[in-house]
Structures
1.
Amino acid sequence: MSNAQAVERPKNAEPWTKLGPKVKIASIITIALPSSIFALTLFVTGIDFMAGLLTIFLPLQLLVGALAGFYSFGRRGIMDGLLLVATFFLSLFVLVLLTSVLWSVFEAGFRAMSPHFIYQNNVYVSGQTGLEIGGVGHAILGTIITVGISTIITVPLGVATAVYLTETREKGRGVIRTLLQAMSALPSVVAGLFIFSMLILSGWSGYSGLMGSLALIPLMLPTISRVAEESLRLVPADLRNGALALGAPAYRAFFMVTLPAAKSGIVTAILLGIARVIGETAPILLTVAFANGTNINPLEGGMTTLPGYIFTFIILGDQTSIARAWGAALVLLVFVGILFAAARIASAPKKAKKRSA
Amino acid sequence: MSNFHLETKDINVWFGARHVLKDVNLQFPNNKVTALIGPSGCGKSTFIRTLNRMHELIPGAGLSGEVRLDGQDIYGEAVDPVDVRIKIGMVFQKPNPFPTMSIKDNVMSGIKLSGVSRSDTADLVEVSLKRAAMWNEVKDRLSDPAISLSGGQQQRLCIARSLAMNPEVLLMDEPCSALDPGSTRRIEETILELKENVTIVIVTHNMQQAQRISDQTAFFLAEDNTPGYVVEFGETQQIFYGPIDPRTNEYVNGRFG
């Protein structure tokens, strides 16, 4: 037998990346020419950067892009060139916006940042206290407790709703779906007011972490169930049928085949649900109130959450308080970042082992 | 009581108000292979799905008539569809191994999914994969994900998965339509071996395949928005070489469809 022998992959095994001299020259000119002219104009006339960007650079770049497209590919290249420049410019625009938001949080937040800012609470802190005392430790715990409790309650509810919508043929599905849509438009302050008037004003309970968790549930539920519904819907009917044809009762087919296949989508649903409520301020202020000390009992007494902390300190108005609020914003941002990264890693599909040749 | 293993009596099928299958009476004797042939849209696949109660999972599905397994109507009042599907296995047109499970777990999936307790599970993986003629190909990579297999292997894995349940009847809905000739040949060989113990019903568009593997053949036809029905049913040799109905003759000789 003379089997074909495997050969090592050559360095450039991507012939589609070879562009030819014409396209190369056009690309270099498109990148270099408008920006150098723009830089020169800025230098010579001292025109405002943003104004120059929009009045000189963008039209020039579009023109050069279109011409380069025409030079490389003829008439159909014009539209290609224009679209490429427009796409690139708009992506850059959004990227700059996003980065500047992140940057301002990091820059302003770092002033308050120190190890004790993470674990201390703010008993003994007033507007006159320096940044060397006090922190958001109690607010981090408060956020974890309130959001944690509502996640534990909402995830089963939300996933069960999604299962009802996708796996059954009940007549109530249309109504439920409409209600979920309506719920997702519910202003968060209304959810807070509802719990406040029903459970707190009536004297049934005082301000507490649990009340906050309850207020977050109606905000989280529509997000979780709608995203979970989409991910369950994406599981091919063939798989469900395969399981049922083997004699699986519906519940086993769901838990052993459908749910594992939709796992990463369900995790995304939970993440988006958490993201929806972790920054909520209004319902928290109405139901959890505020506390300077650390309170880890969700059943009794006020708590502070990170958004509540930010809100309280930013309206105090003095320099150190504002710095503290920015610091808390930074902590919240990093907190969410870590949470998302962890969940993404946990839900990543196991890499399929290399197919044996 | 009849002496047929599986038998249908006046099966009529509707989707919503549309009548798609009319008065199907077929008999499937023990350990014989029956081929269902006919042009697309004539109701073969719909019919085969009525035989293990997969039909009722389609929204808007309707049915009248009886499907008797060993004389018992599987649509009887107290019959659990789960029990029916354990006895009557099914292989689908597109290979559908469970993507989150390994090759081994796929073979065992029926046992776990249906919750039947079996004493002989120890070498069930090996036995089932051997019956589906793929043990030698996969014995060294049983823990690999099932989706790492080729299309033909995936389909044979699905057959092995059904066989692990030790079904009395195996329904196959165009099992080779997505496969190359080599894989098709292996599946056909598997079918001929399985015949020893299992009653097989197979939908196929491939006339040669029907002739190679089946003992009897039913020709389905649906004309101009009328319900599909069985034009002719008999021994495979007779359907292909001495059909009574001229339309059967035209179809098996490739003149329409």
2.
Amino acid sequence: MSDPQPLIRVDHVVKHFPLNDKVFGSSGVIHAVDDVSVELYPGEVLGLVGESGCGKSTLANLIMRLEEPTSGTIEYLGRDISTFEKDDLKTYRREVQMVFQDTFGSLDPRMTITDVLTEPFTIHRDVLPKDAWPDKVRALLKLVGLDPDHANRYPHEFSGGQRQRICIARALALDPKVLVCDEPVSALDVSVQAQVVNLLKDLRDEFGLSYVFVAHDLSVVRQIADRVAVMYLGQVQEIGEEEEVLLHPSHPYTQALVSALPTADAQGNVTGKRIVLSGDLPSPADPPSGCRFNTRCWMAQQKCVDEEPELIERGTGRPTKCHFVTPTVDAPASV
Amino acid sequence: MSDPVLTVDDLHVEFRTEDGVVKAVDGVSYELGKGEILAVLGESGSGKTVHARAVLRILDMPPAYITGGRAMLGDVNLFDLDEADMREVRGARIAMLFQDPHTALDPVYTVGDQIIELLRLRRGISTREARAQALELLQWVGIPSPEGRLKAYPHQLSGGIAQRVMVAMAIALDPDVLLADEPTSSLDVTVQAQVLELLGSIVKRTEMSMVLITHNLAVAVGLADRIAVMYAGQLVELGPAKAVYGDPKHPYSAALLRSIPDIQRRDERLPAITGSPPNLLNAPDGCPFNPRCPYATDVCLTAMPPLEQVADDHLSACYHWDEVER
């Protein structure tokens, strides 16, 4: 990515959620996102991957300004989004749109598809005159591969994959520049998942969109992302070109994540050496000292407990947050 | 195969809804051998979970009705038992492991209370003995510091540990058959690997038989001896796991295999299956896969193909099985 001006720049962003549990008397803070810096360039798909609790969805929400960062800044085209008010905020919300995982929760069951797809124009009144709305609805439905004649149906009359297409159409209504997609295909069946991934790729090519693509399924991310950031307990562990990160991971956590994918060769023999991590994710309310992965890492040494590694280039051509980078483990061969 | 432990024979389950009758399971038959792992593979709405709940008779009836078939556990037809006898069978001879451990565990009792209660009631042993056995079980399923976990409430457990507790409870009474319904789908991928390994080792050590219900082909081939593929309530393919995965004989299985994204390969376009799974209120005539099938001909539009042997131990319900390419 040579373009010097990123669309979105996340700069040392921290998000802590206060933990005040009166019933069990616990208190403290959840370290949801801890000092994360990433950039999204025009036309790029940035994959955010990691297991539940790693902070990837919180980061997406911060970018959408659905949450305010505890510290650090998020810039859109060089301007701090936390300073946006009124018109600026409205423009930001138009140009940066979101697609969610749960298609039932993100479509009002009492609104027809026409209502859903024209609501953006009732909020952004100057975009499209009212008499042009019906044609726009038909065009949007066509764009996402749905039958324009179904515009007066309700969400429950569509399958999960079709509902996600409707959500994508809604996100596209105002000609955005960026889509923040939070697990957009995770709730869909495999056969339908592939359709929606293909649709997102087509739309990116057609409109030059940029995506922040949050997902836990590395195989899906491989199909669409240009760069991938791997998160663990609120921090980016490794970031780089998708092929490098996913096929030749340099951080032990990425290696474990990639190796844990169930894979088999064409004859159905299970392939690849699986690195089974011991233990569970530590609580984000009390992250381990030093490297946050040290409690589950098979390479951990005293240094990893004492000293937090920096996210810097360590001879693999991309930043990795690990004292002992090994650029050797390849992704398991499959299908 | 030695005598089957579980025989499901021509099982039919209907849901009678306001909008009409849904044939959720439409004539499913298979035999499960001792120590065998059979993966039942399918997408949402395929009937894979409903079939298991029907066998265990834990469907909400109504709206569900078991309208035909038998579920033979040894020589007992589970559908002939009265509810009291069925309760004796559940857990002791055939047990179920659910997808989400946190909804399956009772949030207001500790893990220990729940396991001890189970052992006391069903084994008729004292609390003291039950506690000792509970500890042993937790150790057995690989839970670190089991003493402390007995006192924990479910919300204090991570997904992986909670699912191990569920495994411990499912095997507590040493059942012959374990029905595992998407046991790892709610878990993170690194924890998923641990739980799958645990299930595999349990079957190896105890000769328990397992029906593994999953939507994940790679999980199925990694763990199962045989794979049964369900589509629209019907079994469309059944065969040795490696054969179904490596040389599928049904267009749906083949298409499903191709549509799985591969981390090794970045495809310009993923080979998706066109269309959506059928609405079972209004299922297509003939083979339910025909609207999405690249091989479909006129005959597929009128009559459902029978599930027939097409290779060694390998059944397919397709008129065009010999044209199918992976």
